[in-house]
Specification:
The complex is a heterodimer of chains A (311) and B (181). Chain A is an alpha/beta fold and 311 residues long. Helix content of chain A is 38%, strand content 14%. Chain A has eleven helices and nine strands. Chain B has 181 residues and is an alpha/beta fold. Chain B contains three helices and eight strands, in the order E-H-E-H-E-E-H-E-E-E-E. The radius of gyration of chain B is 16 Å and the shape is globular. Classes of the chains: A alpha/beta (311), B alpha/beta (181).
Chain lengths: 311, 181
């Protein structure tokens, strides 16, 4: 198979295992492209892509924009902060207005879970989900899988721990689905308040003990503690203090020194240095955090290139 | 399948030999590199590289593999997209003389994409084209090879296939009267 089975990427749920493998294989060739003296290919020069960001994002938007430009697509950017959305325009109207200007593909981030699914039923364009609320972030999961595979080879049988704020994380859900399709074992680890009650129904193990989890896993994907969700004056915080979180769930050199097997450390960024991970660990040879960023561009090029090839 | 052998194995080896000697008339390979086009030109490029090694034992003849999939002009126009192959260009072609190698030349569009892809690896001083089979009269672009294994006159429905053997023994070329499924 050299074509995707779906013309949208709204979530990892849209993909079959063969799709994921095709994306990862194609990303390898694009990684070679972005390391050439001229990092650009003309494949998509007759395609126009709109990046619609209804929620703030720096690295994902930059990564998508670079991926699109390196495929020679024309790119238009839209951020909700300074748009007609503020004037009360509906999502479907906003997107239809943009499509009326002859746009072929939409990359969107939205604070509401399911927004891309809602949209794909109602507008005539291809949709790539760049994060919808706490639901899915499929390209992050694909680039994480690619980065793990680059370091560890085939992921079948590998043990991956996702640590931290699982409750608010779209990265966690997409990662779990993607890794399981590739045959890896997944465990989530964090304080009880930050782990959704029914997460085990996805077939993952649940742990509240970081040291035991580190001893178990080949890869630890440390999620960001979303400080903005730590409760305001009218909300009860999810854990007593950052200091306590750091003491129980922060990845430190001391914790790493207890492990007697090789381990790979990942983080989707942005990092809270000194909270979920110390600087020394984030900059150590175990960490592949910057590789993840580089691979993000190659994987997004592969996703857009392959989707553009679906009739 | 209705087909016949265009170039039998013994003739095939002689053609490789001739192509290598023709290249040596014009190049000493101190400033010249071979670049094979993926997926099948790379086999021919390696065969010629091996032959040149015998003829020029003191010179290191370099051979790269170039994939032109992302540079094609028919993206989105084909029923099924072409799967990209690996590009392996361990050297820059900046100011080098390049022999671009492919197995069959037909419309010229793959070569056009190949030249485009090559430019991402530097600005070569010159580019020449070497092909095993030149299907004349069906060119869609003004592209002509300088070194030719064999020129053939064929019609559109026909299909030419170069069979490469892993050990390099017994390669041959087959002409089908209809394109195989």
């Amino acid at each position: 198979m050299n074509t995707l089975s779906n013309r949208h990427l709204t979530g990892i749920r849209d993909l079959k295992e063969s799709d994921i493998r095709l994306i990862l294989k194609t990303a390898e060739e694009f990684k070679e492209v972005i390391n050439r003296p001229i990092r650009k290919v003309p494949s998509l020069r007759d395609l126009t892509i709109a990046n619609l960001f209804f929620e703030n994002s720096t690295r994902t938007r930059l990564s998508f924009e670079l991926a699109e430009k390196r495929l020679s697509a024309d790119v238009v950017n839209f951020t909700a902060a300074n748009s007609s959305v503020k004037k009360g325009e509906t999502l479907v109207d906003t997107v239809n207005n943009i499509l009326a200007m002859k746009v072929d593909m939409v990359v969107m981030r939205h604070p509401h879970p399911g927004a891309p699914h809602f949209l794909k039923e109602r507008v005539q364009t291809q949709i790539v989900n760049a994060g919808d609320g706490t639901h899915e972030h499929p390209t992050q999961a694909l680039l994480d899988a690619y980065s793990m595979q680059e370091r560890l080879g085939d992921l079948a049988g590998k043990r991956v721990a996702i640590v931290g704020d699982i409750r608010h994380s779209r990265v966690a859900v997409s990662n779990i689905l993607c890794l399981q399709m590739l045959g890896a074992h997944v465990r989530v680890c964090g304080p009880k308040t930050l782990i959704p009650k029914h997460i085990a129904s996805l077939g993952v193990e649940v742990s509240h003990d970081l040291d035991a989890t580190l001893a178990w896993c080949d890869v630890a994907n440390m999620l960001r503690i979303q400080l903005e969700r730590q409760g305001g004056e009218d909300r009860v915080p999810y854990f007593p203090s950052l200091r306590e979180y750091q003491a129980r769930f922060g990845l430190t050199e001391e914790r790493l020194s207890q492990i007697d097997h090789p381990i790979t450390i990942m983080h989707p960024g942005p990092i809270n240095r000194g909270v979920e991970i110390t600087s020394a660990v984030a900059d150590s040879e175990h960490a592949i955090i910057l590789d993840q960023v580089e691979n993000g561009v190659a994987v997004r090029m592969a996703v857009i290139y392959l989707l553009a090839g679906v009739r | 399948m209705d087909s016949h052998v265009l170039i039998a194995p013994e003739l095939f080896d002689r053609i490789i030999d001739r192509l290598a000697h023709q290249l040596l008339e014009h190049h000493d390979f101190l400033e010249t590199d071979l670049v094979g086009l993926q997926p099948r030109g790379i086999f021919l490029a390696r065969r010629i590289q091996e032959r040149l090694k015998d003829l020029l034992p003191e010179v290191e003849v370099r051979c790269g593999a170039l994939d032109a999939t992302f540079h094609r002009d028919d993206f989105g126009r084909r029923q099924h997209p072409i799967t990209p192959n690996a590009t392996d260009m361990p050297f820059l072609v900046e100011d080098r003389r390049v022999i671009l190698v492919d197995d069959v030349l037909y419309t010229g569009r793959t070569i056009r994409a190949g030249i485009d892809a090559l430019m991402a690896h530097g600005r070569p001083r010159s580019v020449e084209l070497l092909v095993m089979i030149d299907r004349r009269f069906r060119r869609e672009l003004p592209i002509e090879p300088k070194y030719i294994g064999k020129s053939i006159d064929s019609i559109d429905e026909q299909h030419v296939r170069v069979h490469w053997r892993k050990d390099g023994m017994g390669d041959y070329v087959e002409l089908f009267n209809r394109k195989p499924e």
